[in-house]
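Entry: Phage portal protein
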Amino acid sequence: MRNPLSTLGEALFSAPQRSEVKTRNGGVYYQPGEVDTIPVPENIGEEIELYQETPLLAAAYTQFADDVVEPGARVTADSSKTEDWLNDDFLPNAGIVAGKSHQDFGEILHQSAVLHEAGGKVLTEHVKKDPSTSEPTITGFMLIPIESVAFQTRENRPILLEPDAEGEDVAMTKRNEAAAYLQYHETSPYGRLGKYTDKDVVKLSQNDVTDITRNPLPGQLMGLSATHPVKGRTVALKQKLQDNELAIQSKAHGIWSVAFGREVVEAGNETTIYEWDDDEQQDFLQNKIGREMGPGDIIGHDGEISFEKFEGEIADGLLDFLEFDIKYIVSALPTPLYAVGWESNINQFVTERQETRYDKQVRDLRRTLETAYTGALIDVAESHGYDTSGIQLHIEPEEDESPIRSMDDDVMQRFVDYTTGLKNVYGNKAHKHFDEERFVDLVAQLPEEALADEEENEPDVEPVPPLDEDNEQVQAQFGQQNQGQQAVADGGEAVDEDGDE
């Protein structure tokens, strides 16, 4: 009978990851009567902060982003001039990261992959040289903290304002386009904390931003982060670790109760009472017991004091609870347990099942990022006066003459599985079931150049001189050699003209 916990585990580990890439459609004009300003939910900032402060989440998202962008980014286009300019000049300097311009575009992709999982939404500004002009030149990309943003939408409808929208309440950009995104807005999560009292609101239209949303729900502008379904469990895990740390400290040092009493000393007709006032008690606890005293120290005092020690208790079976929490949390994350160092029983069957799911999520996010930023790169090329036909971003290795050498790790693994399957079917004689051209083209998928020229492969042999009437002696000589060689080939021995060996 199948273990129901295994079924639950597989269901948890196969949670789908869907992304929405917003595209713009031209030619739509409307004039809304009212405009709504929708703040980002406060929990988005909490979830991003949880990622930043929880090593388990930080390791998972960083590893996932590393694997997504590992092959590198390149652009193809119909125009070689456009392609060379984007790859050689623009992309190596397209990022604005940590306040520094001229950073590689790969950093933007890496940040996008992290925020896609940690925040559920990625907003990337197209930074322009002069944003007030009608056709500004795009000089780079910079990610926008989602916690700083509020949205402008149609009244009572979760639809971002299109750039050509007009109305009295519509906030407009410097190019006189309707703003869909209001950065540094007072209603944003950071704005409500008073962080933007000294900043002016930055108004950005849909033409100014690349918007990628993870697992969007119907009627919602925001997506769901990978942290969202396990946020409570993550907080509980951190609380367990903190409580256990306090229990260990109390076990080691103990909790002391100090009671200050009255001491009565009678000497003849004289009675003396020793007691502690409030200031003396406070001074004794803070300066003597709390600071000055160390191991082996002895303190003398007047007055009666009684000490009592209490020890904390460490929870039994805590490791089992922590292990369950960790597996529960990682089930919602893109990376498998072994990738973040929490899988103890690693074997082929564990890794294969988890790798299949993981590789698919890596490929899915690569395609999502490619689709989202291809549109932005088309705008970049157009703003710089280059031909935009056929522009496409690829997150994959450079093309090679041999497709095998240009494969990334997951594709190479599928190729290995494929060739292993051929071996299982045909053994070591697979080549006998395919002619050379079909094997190279269909099985190995190599270019035609992989087929060597037959003439180049022929062994070097001494040419036979032409036979004619004036060369009867040569004819006889070669005839004798051929007869001898044929005899040897047939298993006999070469014989001379007289029949001797």
